[in-house]
Amino acid sequence: MHKRIILALDQAGWHTSYALKVPEGIHLIHMPSHSPELQPAERLWPLTDEPIANESFDNLDQLEEVLFHRCRSLLYQRDLVRGLTCFHWWPKTAASTYN
Which of 10, 6, 84, 5 is nearest to 47 (CA)? Predict the structure, then answer.
């Protein structure tokens, strides 16, 4: 069985390289620039960056702890997350409509 993987990439400079050798079976699809609606999770980065911006950590465990608590608090802020990621044309599912 041959598997195919489609990897969608935005056009951020750090996501591109002319030296990249893409293995057989992996297909890169480059999304149009400035199209956050194609990758709704992109709009969540400011929420996760907020507690770590302009901070320094002694080790990765400290960083992980801060991010863990931030993500845990976002679980209870569904309206905020939904407002950033649910577009009017996005298909509604049971998971996206529960309270």
Answer: 84
Which of the two residues, 36 and 51, has the higher pLDDT score? 51
- Asked whether the beta carbons of 3 and 24 are under 8 A apart, the reply is no
Question: Smallest Cα–Cα separation from 44: which of 8, 88, 15, 80?
Answer: 80
Number of structural domains in the chain: 1
Among the listed residues 43, 44, 27, 35, the one whose alpha carbon sits nearest the alpha carbon of residue 10: 35
For residue 68, the enclosing domain spans 5-97
pTM over 0.70: no
Are 25 and 5 within 8 A, CB to CB? yes
